[in-house]
Amino acid sequence: MPITLQDVALRAGVSKSAVSRTFTPGASVSAKTRAKVEAAAKELGYMPNVLASSLTTGRTALIGLISNNFTNPYFLEIFDLFTRALQKAELRPLLINLSAEEDASRSLSMLRQYNVDGVIVASSTLPPDFAKVFHDAGIPVVHAFGWSSEAPQTGRVSIDNTEAGHLAAVTLIERGYRQVGFLGGPQNAATTADRLRGFQTELLTHGLAPEVEFATAYSYEAGRVAMTRALDSVPEVEAWFCGDDVIAIGAMDAATALGRSIPSDIGFIGLNDMNMAGWDRIALTTIRQPAQQIVATSVDLIRQGIADPATEPQMVLLPCTLIDRKTLRAKP
């Protein structure tokens, strides 16, 4: 028979409510009573039922971790970081795949069925009304790795994507490139627009303007297809800033298949610094997002939002850095 709360209370010589308070975070219980209860629980092998305790506290510690980027290997790394960080914070991730979802209200209904305490949107392509709908329902929300000024009510943690575009432009100019291109992700993604804006603005100060192409998704295949098209229409471009590493890897393979040598014939710079970018065969020069810091900050903000729903949403922009490998020529 499973060990019950009553069994622990009898062994410890305390009331059932004292046992319940011992295993309820933030509940008042004396140090003496806590020691008795914990000792009795250890002797009996009792583990509190978190689902049952949620009925008392009104808190499930469930955090909806939602995205639509499951085909992008970088986001598998992100989900690994998030699940570890949430579990370390004694929160339980509920992973939701919204790849085929277009109705924010239906997504809200699904999350409400599980009575989540908060939501982390880990995507740059979900429309901003997703975060807004969750926020308007009284659920603390943090949007990580992408944000839009159209959804100012939610917490946001990201790099400064405009600055990332600026850094890419500066890097290409320093390497002596003059005919350059931008291969972004989906055109409707706010991050794509910001990266392109920063890239164009810096190039303009040098009297340059990039060729612009967009991939249909943040995926290898979309990058390969888009670059195949670009190399046919604008073969004179010497280097491309790709707004995502996996798009860049697809683009590099397209260029190689068409007989271009990297970096002597054509250069590439990506964004994210996913693990694959550092593989010897790829060795992609890229702009690193501090993924671990973005995840840790997002978890801190969601904990604050749960503890104090009146907390004003914060916007946290973190710095990005250049990781120099082998897909751009050296400085002249």
UniProtKB/TrEMBL annotation:
It comes from the Bacteria. Residues 3-57 form the HTH lacI-type domain. InterPro entries: HTH_LacI (IPR000843), Lambda_DNA-bd_dom_sf (IPR010982), Peripla_BP/Lac1_sug-bd_dom (IPR001761), Peripla_BP_I (IPR028082). PROSITE patterns: HTH_LACI_2. SUPFAM superfamilies: lambda repressor-like DNA-binding domains (SSF47413), Periplasmic binding protein-like I (SSF53822). Pfam families: LacI, Peripla_BP_1. Keywords: DNA-binding, Repressor, Transcription, Transcription regulation. The keyword Transcription applies. GO terms for molecular function: DNA-binding transcription factor activity; transcription cis-regulatory region binding. PANTHER family: LACI-RELATED TRANSCRIPTIONAL REPRESSOR, RIBOSE OPERON REPRESSOR. This is LacI family DNA-binding transcriptional regulator. It comes from Marivita cryptomonadis.
